[in-house]
Write a structure and sequence with these properties.
alpha+beta, four-stranded antiparallel beta sheet, three-stranded antiparallel beta sheet, 2 helices, 22% helix, globular
Length: 97
């Protein structure tokens, strides 16, 4: 991961607390600038799809997670659309465990 991608993610949607550690970052931008995507920390998930406001969920607050083809990723009945369906399916599977 490039430092510039991480900084852009932090400025766009990855608003982590001091006691959080970044585990993984999926950059969903076409040019790889990091401003859109999905990030996992030790405490929660942060998302920023294109044309949407940033969102975050603490793992303990997630009551449901699913991937629905044609609709995207649903977390607690809130929909997030990204271009890569394979990534969304994997995210839904991880969150529902």
């Amino acid at each position: 991961m490039l430092q510039e991608q991480l900084e852009n993610a932090k400025n766009s949607y990855l608003f982590i607390e001091d006691d959080e550690s970044l585990i993984a970052l999926y950059d969903s931008t076409f040019f790889g600038d990091g401003e859109l995507g999905i990030a996992f920390t030790n405490q929660g998930i942060y998302l920023r799809p294109r044309w949407s406001e940033p969102a975050s969920f603490q793992y303990s607050d997630i009551t449901s997670a699913a991937f629905i083809s044609g609709q995207g990723l649903l977390i607690n009945d809130k929909r997030f659309a990204f271009s890569s369906q394979n990534v969304l399916e994997s995210v839904a599977e991880l969150l529902s465990q």
